[in-house]
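Limitations
The structure tokens in this dataset are predictions for the assembled complex, not deposited experimental models. Users should treat interface geometry with appropriate caution, especially where small molecules or nucleic acid strands are included. An illustrative entry is reproduced here so readers can see what is and is not provided.
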Amino acid sequence: MPPSESAKPVAVIGASGALGFGLAMRLARAGVAVAIGSRDPARAQETAARAARALERVAVGSFEAFDNAGAASAADVVILIRNQSETLANLSGALSPGQLLIDATVPLAAAVSGKATRMLGVWQGSAAEQAREMVPEGVRVVAGLHTVSAASLADLENPLEQDVLLCGDSREDKAQAAHLIERIEGLRCVDCGRLEMARIAESLTALLIAVNARYKRHAGIRLTDLDASLWE
Amino acid sequence: MPPSESAKPVAVIGASGALGFGLAMRLARAGVAVAIGSRDPARAQETAARAARALERVAVGSFEAFDNAGAASAADVVILIRNQSETLANLSGALSPGQLLIDATVPLAAAVSGKATRMLGVWQGSAAEQAREMVPEGVRVVAGLHTVSAASLADLENPLEQDVLLCGDSREDKAQAAHLIERIEGLRCVDCGRLEMARIAESLTALLIAVNARYKRHAGIRLTDLDASLWE
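Predicted assembly:
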């Protein structure tokens, strides 16, 4: 078993939302055990049952349902989907040194009744840099998955064929995130540099929302001129 | 002749730089007459001669060499490549109502001795929004071409096969820019919304610089799940 994998499940925090649900299904279909986290444990249960039903014809990893803190403490890798600052404040007791946090959150202006095509200014520069400040010491933070649409993930017939832009200060942490995410067929992870580059990667969500509003599609990002496989 | 074309040349302001040179060559190879603009008219002459030599084996549009103001006043469409605020301040007398300015400039922190992977804060929000404030009334502004690398453009064997993200407040202006830019084989223009979205499109240059530094390539952007042709 490669060092980036473990027997523990991967936690998807906010899995009852559309993006988290799609991601949980895709990971499970790839054989990953998923800890479904939701604020309301009953909703987590319902989400786990719904995901299992959607996947009943394929061999899959398992689902377990938790509240968010329960999911986070059960996992080595924690994927944070939404409501970042509120959720992280609540999770602070559940996260522990050595865990990898993959922050997929985006500070859209929609969170304060603004447009979904506009970004909020985050004092630290990006949601990911804010997360790095909020997590307990020793929790590693990589930003990614901002540009993969919920609709594309949830449509299991969609081949995806798009990139995930990873930002982080440690090459090893990014490689660990990449090895997990690339278990989802059709996703290629690209190393986009330090965590501060999440300022740009996060803003691509707003750009894609504008594009999708115009064309009524679910666009993702593909970088050209790169090799098909970018990680050892 | 479609309404978006005219007998006047397209001005490339800053054509002696790598990006401007590549763009001028690609446009000329597509049959577009190009007014090569450079701060120094002698350098514009040299650039025009160099471009003509590089293209001698293909049927091409013509090159004419000017200083930047001369190129801008000779054209209906003016493409601005670099040194935006300085160049626009000098061009203010040369631009006139009805012209279309395609702003490809990017406020990289490198302009003030910072990193090329970091952006400057521009008071108006983006270089393109600053341009809109600086140009004479009646000059229309569309932002685009930030993500196409100089090296890819200059390598005439490179099929490009990438997208140009266009931002602007007028759908017609964006369509005019798209019809011109898509004469370059392998480029597809995508309507990314209003001019304010240039804040995001411009920052992609910094992200691609980080990616290219990591992988020693010349990455561009392709949006997935969109039709091959997006303009009437």
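Some entries come with short summary sentences. For this one: Chain A touches chain B through 39 residues (CB under 8 Å).
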